[in-house]
Amino acid sequence: MTFSMTGFAALEQASGNATLLLELRAVNSRYLDLHFKLDENLRSLEPSIRELIGAQLSRGKIECKVNLIQRVPSNQAAQLDENVMQQLAAMQTKARAHFPQSRELSVADILRWPGVVLSEALSDSTLLEDVKKLVTEGLQALNDSRAREGEKLKALVLERLSQIEVLVEKVKPLLPALTKDYQAKLEAKLHETLKNIDQERIAQELVLFAQRIDVDEELTRLTAHVSEVKRILSSSAPAGKRLDFLMQELNREANTLGSKSVSVQTTQVSIALKVLIEQMREQIQNIE
What we know:
Layout: E1 7-15, E2 18-27, E3 32-38, H1 46-56, E4 60-70, E5 79-80, H2 82-98, H3 107-112, E6 117-118, H4 124-171, H5 174-193, H6 199-213, H7 216-234, H8 240-259, H9 264-284
Parallel strand pairs: 3-4
Antiparallel strand pairs: 1-2, 2-4, 5-6
Helix pairs in contact: 1-4, 4-7, 4-9, 5-6, 7-8, 8-9
């Protein structure tokens, strides 16, 4: 299955008297680039979360955000930490000594201050298991999102590959006709300058011309590269880097085809090939 590097997942889960909120965002990147925004109570769990993500993803810029919202049970009165409030009052007094025009803290400001409202401490082991479970489910949701996007990218690339195959088949029958046209022009040119046409001279010129415009090798490699791209897209392994390399090889053959062109038709085919290859390359930048 082809995976895009772009995806999003958002989940929540109860953990004791608290709720865990998870957001996973993924965008394209050459390597696996992890960024965390964790609640203060969850920072010690970053290595475990990092390990889970690294086991599932190989490329992409990943932003993992986990919040912990603690709540007081309905049958229990809220408890306030006197020490924290005294420290907060002292800090406000010192701050207003320097900034007398600043407003005082409101009750809402005080209650939102970390640690003011006491809550039942969560077991570290329970919290770790709940976070690991939530991240595992989030990664599954993220991968489902990336898989859907990947299938769209795969369809776009396969469509361009089909157009390339059509263009390659269009070029092949042009080569004998080009050689035949060149022979007729060469005979006419020699007839103007020589009374007797030197067939050996014509044969030599035709051989040189055929060698110069021979693109059979380039067409064969184009066909081989197209087949390889299809094979990689059908596999389940990460494919982005290999596909990016094949786009370079396809572009190289298209350029060579254009440099050997001696007709408007083959030039047009070369340009069309390069446009299709560039369109594929843009899509492949998002494939893992």
